[in-house]
């Protein structure tokens, strides 16, 4: 179990360090993500409670970005999955995220806290699901098919009906 935690931490560090080191070389105040958050929040308030509709972020965001702030690039996504869900889905997006997080916490409780047996694969699954969720606060990794596909495997392990028995017996 200790080795699994250490190995998971090393993998998370390797995953995160590449992008993080490149970001640390840049001036954080010049990053457009702050602008996207500011005007994205304005859009979310304007479209509350119904949202602007699925897949409409770029069109819903554009009227809230002042012309003096626009440049050669424009926002296709909010660089924050949760803000983008809030803009597009409104109150339903908040409910969806809350329900998904509750389901995740229940799965962690059932697989790691209540269960007597804590297989390392379940600990690794928690880490493998948590990292992209945290990454979603500053980018949109869950909108890329590769990350979605990789995330589906540990998530399916956590949400499976068995209590973490990986030996093939139910």
Protein architecture, described:
The chain is an all-alpha fold. It has one domain. It has 7 helices and no strands. 19% of the residues are buried. Helix 4 packs across helix 5. The mean pLDDT is 78.
- Total helical segments: 7
- Which sequence of SSEs, written as H and E, runs from N to C? HHHHHHH
N- and C-termini, Cα separation: 22 Å
**Largest sheet features:** none
Computed structural class: mainly alpha
Task: Kindly give the count of domains.
Answer: 1
Strand content: under 5%
Low-pLDDT residue spans: none
Secondary structure elements and their pairing?
Blueprint: H1 2-24, H2 32-47, H3 57-61, H4 81-89, H5 91-114, H6 120-135, H7 145-159
Helix pairs in contact: 1-6, 2-4, 4-5, 6-7
Membrane topology: Multi-pass membrane protein
Subcellular location: Membrane
Main location: membrane
């Amino acid at each position: 179990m200790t080795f699994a935690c250490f190995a998971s931490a090393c993998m998370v560090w390797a995953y995160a360090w590449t992008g993080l080191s490149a970001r640390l070389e840049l001036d954080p105040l010049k990053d457009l993500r702050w602008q996207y958050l500011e005007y994205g929040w304005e859009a979310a308030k304007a479209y509350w409670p119904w949202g602007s509709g699925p897949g409409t972020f770029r069109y819903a965001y554009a009227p809230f970005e002042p012309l003096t702030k626009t440049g050669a690039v424009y926002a296709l996504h909010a660089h924050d999955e949760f803000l983008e869900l809030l803009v597009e889905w409104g109150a339903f997006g908040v409910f969806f995220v809350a329900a998904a997080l509750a389901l995740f916490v229940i799965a962690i409780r059932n697989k790691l806290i209540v269960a007597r047996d804590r297989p390392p694969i379940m600990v690794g699954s928690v880490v493998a699901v948590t990292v992209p969720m945290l990454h979603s606060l500053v980018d949109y990794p869950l909108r890329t098919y590769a990350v979605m596909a990789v995330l589906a495997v540990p998530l399916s392990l956590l949400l499976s009906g068995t209590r973490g028995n990986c030996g093939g017996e139910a």
